[in-house]
User: Fold these one by one.
Assistant:
Number 1:
Amino acid sequence: MSAGSGLTAQPNPQEESALIVRFTVNGEERSVDADASMPLLWALRDLLGLRGTKYGCGIAECGVCTVHVDGSAVRSCVLPLSAVEGKHVRTIEGLGGNHALQRAWIEKQVPQCGFCQPGQIMQAAALLASNPDPDREQVRESMSGVLCRCGTYLRIEAAVQIAAAELRKAGEHSD
Ligand code: FES
Ligand code: FES
């Protein structure tokens, strides 16, 4: 198992498939003792109490469970816990509530039922971290994997552009 930070997963002698997995979540060092194949989403919600990230399809098809691992957007419902050993995980809670994207989401009144929105915002944050000035097609392409049953796509696109402009003006990175 790779360990970017030099941390090493330790086998739990009580259970062959269990591991103590250490990683950071929203800048805080955390460790969980769980089956190595447990999806990251389960660990975040059920073991660490971070319930902002939602469960939708469970098969990497809807994107509502999107979080960042070392800055990249990943579907946490299918990522085994063992894969985040020594890595940096960021969830919607890690944006802090006043991120430019979150302000833009409010400005454009994006959410309807709201269920998909944590995944939408985390996907958008990963996009702006890698491309601070995406055009409309690039926004559409990047966001296309996160589904919204309420059809908020046009408002999402507008909000991403607003946040991108604000971050560029402030000379800030999406992170
Ligand atoms: S719940 Fe993970 S992609 Fe749908
Ligand atoms: S706001 Fe309802 S599913 Fe997206």
Note: Strands lie at 10-11, 18-25, 28-35, 66-69, 72-75, 88-90.
Number 2:
Amino acid sequence: MLELIGRYRIHEQIGEGAMADVYRAHDPHIDRPLAIKVLKAEYRQDREYAARFLREARAAGALSHPGIVTVFDVGEVDGFPFIVMELLDGEPLSEVLRRGPMPPSQVIPIAIQLVDALAYAHGQGVIHRDIKPSNIILSPDGRSLKLLDFGIAQLAEADPVAEADSYKTQIGQVIGTPRYMSPEQALGRELDVRSDIYSIGIVLYEMLSGRRAFGGGSAAAVTAQIVNVDPAPLAEVAPNTPRGLQFIVGKAIAKQPAQRFADAARLSDALRRELSVAQVVAREAAAQRSYLPLQVRLTLLMALITAIVLAIAVGTVLSRQRAAMRGVALSSGNAISAFVANNAALRAVDNAALPADQQDWVPVQAFVQNAAADPNLRGLLVTDAGGVVRAAIDQSLIGRPYRAPTDEPLVADRDGVTIRAADGGQSFRFVRPITYAGRSFGTVDLRLNQAILRSAARVSTWLLVLLAVVTLGTVALVSFLSARLLQAPITRLGDALMEIARGNLDFRISHSRQDEFGELFDGVNLVAQSTQERQEAVEALLLDRPAPTQSPPPPPPPPPPAEPPVAEPLAASSEPTPFTRPMEPDEASEPLGAAAPAMEDVAPEPPAEAVEEPEPVIAPPEPEEAAEPAQVEEPEPPQEMLAPPWPHDEDEDRTLVDPQDEQRR
Ligand SMILES: Nc1ncnc2c1ncn2[C@@H]1O[C@H](COP(=O)(O)OP(=O)(O)O)[C@@H](O)[C@H]1O
Ligand SMILES: [Mg+2]
């Protein structure tokens, strides 16, 4: 192994490309680590390779951008050239991608850096022409990158020879790596910055999907695919990719340069827009995960609202009812105690005038015993003016001194009557003085049972709750059914809009609705119809035929040919058809991919493009494009050019150079 190149001390090899080996090195003058790229031994004899190698140094050396590797020095020792660069810490993107796809949230920011680096290079007149994962180094944290390997860059100004005949010399030579080459590069045609945009698109496709845009096979087979085949849509191979990003990648890898982003700045703008909506998209995705069907959402919402209203209503009714029942209990207890006090009053007044042994409490006691028959009365006693119990339901109390309980919670105290909650809340106690002519002659203590009130309240509570449950169930059921009624037309509308989005306009929604949905269906039908008419007008224009109109009757059919006409699939499919043409079953189920090529033949601009860049839609295709299929079918030029074979899949890093062209130089 080399020890010294010039003043640079060589350490271990850190990379290998098609033409060169890259070593870690050390510059003793500045005392810093470096990377040195050295032409492989087998190419060192060839002056042309050496010249190309030095061109890289000139191209990259003129560029100074955080996204592009910095070239410090270039030189030649013992007849072989070398390039001295900053030593990049990190891993080639090709290695990173071996581990699988990268999340869109990581891809977008680094794609912006890559595109900005490229926009800068393009602004300096440098087209990279060899953008691929092995020429991109990702920083160890995976958040930034550097573009390297300007070995086949095209220098607009710095290279007068290349400038003079750059386009000419490219015809008949293919440079670049086939897998990431744009179709025009693969065909050896004139190329511009949009070729780099294409290659970036393919790199982004691989980052997002973790798979190659174009399958294996020989370089010629890959080239044929690049020219003819659209890679599997990202929606299928990387369904997590936001739609906007899918669109950006799709536009970048359009076969026709005119359909791509016009320059790197526009691609960068589009990616920045995508980055700014990424958060919104992420939030939507999170919401999508907890997505519940309309029926469930509406049912839950209505049930919740009803439950809240019912809870408030039932609660109010019950508390009012309880208050009313209490009022009834209190006034009835009050009335009974008043009745007892009045009955006992005369006797109490009489007895008060007599000595104790002549007093007669028998009538009062008889009255109290009578009252005891009422189950609502839990207790009743009458005392004399001296506070001795003279009559009571509980006869053991008779003759004992009476002490009004004061530890029971007070409920009310009015007109001399004290009402307390007795027996642990089971009853009300009414304590009322027996008065006569303004004097007190004793006390009536009466306890009224609350149990009956309570059980009445319990029954009405249960009835109300039952009513609430029935109401709630009814509301939920009605909401569910009505949401289901809405769901069906919404699904039909969504399906119809998806059909239109896919480019299938051969359908009309059948319906007999007289409501708002009927109007929406008619609206969708109109959109399909008018889009179809416009599309047919464009097709007719492109085929140089009068546009089919509805009103004039079709011209009389030409006399039948002698032979039955041979099926002409292309002509038949591009035949303008009146928009009322019924949908054919197989047409309806035709997959998107199958329909696409036919459409491209007649109208290369997909509808999405037409919205953004309307001009190309009406522009007739360039004659060169019209002849495309013929070229596509016999890709000899590329095959010939690719003749030095790179038969294996793993040859991604091979740079295709036509040595003869090199000699011509
Ligand atoms: N400055 C550098 N720092 C670290 N690694 C590098 C550097 N330059 C190149 N490499 C590594 O060497 C590999 C080949 O370099 P490259 O310039 O692409 O050579 P080639 O022109 O032969 O393709 C790269 O894929 C990368 O892994
Ligand atoms: Mg390389």
Note: The first helix runs from residue 47 to 61.
